[in-house]
Amino acid sequence: MKVKQDQESEVVIETNPAAIPVEEKVNKLNLDNTAVSSKERLSAYFTIAAAAFGLISDGYQNNLMTMSNVIFKKLYPSTYTSEVSTRVSNALLVGAVIGQVIVGLICDRIGRKSALVITTLLIIIGATIGTAAHGANGSVQGLFWCLTIARGITGVGVGGEYPASSTSASEAANEKMQSQRGPVFIMVTNFVLSFGGPLAVSIFLIVLSIAGEDHLPTVWRVCFGIGIILPVTVFFFRLRMLSSKLYKKGAIKRRVPYWLTIRRYWKTLIGTCGAWFLYDFVTFPNGVFSGTIISSVIKNGDIKSTAEWQLLLGTIALPGVFVGAYLCNRLGRRYTMMLGFSGYLIFGLIIGLAYEKITGIIPLFVVFYGLMQSFGNMGPGDMLGLVSAESFATPVRGTCYGLSAAIGKTGAAIGTQAFTPIQNNLGKKWTFIIAAICGVSGILVTYFFVPDMTGVDLADEDAAFLKFLFDNGWEGEIGEDDGRALVTNGNNYEEYNNEKGDSV
């Protein structure tokens, strides 16, 4: 492809066979959402459903270690130290950070479908290795290193699911149900992620009841093995999915303008990255170690009793997701998130300042603990994924979403690593007081840096982003397949050669 440029001419977009002025092309990006084929319509619904099934698998994997930590502590009391427990638990988070960044880039540069297929395969491989994990010559330390590697591989897949599933779901929902995009997105993302907690504990209780406490190795291996089933069921549908119209029209696969992206979205990235860091710093260690916390509060409690209280905790936390879905359009994304962070402040202080008294009444402790997590689900849990999927233009949505989520998982890894030292050196109540401090910080970050995209068509942001690129002299190819177009500063050119795939 050769392009001749006239420095005095206006920026135009070249397509085959005629050049289109910027204004007309920008208007064309406001897609007619009704003009979709039946195949595209069916694919959009399957994409949304597949996102739900994929992320429920993530939720299950995120919470799998909650009761596994309790089992390993009982089976290997001298070997499964706090350092080993933290390492195995953190492996998923470290893998998730890698997956979110890399798969976020793949989402934008190669395509949503490729990213989703890769993440699904990684989860299947990691879960399979974890289920079959053994140490050399029966070594217990070898077992936990094998689990660390397996959880790391699973984590790359789980982390990649966040940008891959969420961007696909938001674009599909924008095409088919724009006015309800927020609630639909929440129900197929954070609801299923949050439901993964009660699901993991429920499956644990069922397997424990069947196998009995005398066969704990069987219990944890079966629970790990069940984690293979969910990604396998969704794999076929992902092989057959189509790209969204937004992606087909707006993808930038070459000469991606990362510097211009930062110039346009730096403030939004501070908001999404900062708020996600604070949220995951609190919610992940409290999720991973909540079983350990409850077992330490229950006097002479067995594993089944701990799991039952853990199930109640997860169930109390779940309604917050529905409240957030209800409020996201009525109250707006920003204020709903701030309201959720305020729950960390209120209940974190209540539990932290009265820890000795509240833990003496186990039902009261679990209710307050559950309400704190429910507010987290209602606010940042629901809104962060939604805001990150809405605030960035389609060409860089996966990348920016992945970066935001990766910073969040970094907070989760740091929080998990710091959890035990905080308890040992400052006291158990300080884990809740620090949660309250994070709540205040989250409110401030959200208010000053997080945009409210309630009711905004994603195509409008795409149009504004592309005009920003044009105004700053960017040249390159946008779109894929029949929707490809060429952006240049001149209006004299040769026809675009689709067969050769030449680019500027």
TrEMBL record:
Span of domain Major facilitator superfamily (MFS) profile: 47-454
Principal subcellular localization: membrane
Gene Ontology MF terms in the entry: carboxylic acid transmembrane transporter activity
Membrane topology: Multi-pass membrane protein
Keyword terms of this UniProt record: Membrane, Transmembrane, Transmembrane helix, Transport
Parts of the chain that traverse the membrane: 42-60, 88-107, 114-136, 142-164, 184-212, 218-237, 309-328, 335-355, 430-450
Pfam families: Sugar_tr
GO cellular component labels: plasma membrane
Protein location: Membrane
Organism: Pyrrhoderma noxium
InterPro entries, per database record: MFS_dom, MFS_sugar_transport-like, MFS_trans_sf
Protein name: MFS Git1p-like glycerophosphoinositol permease
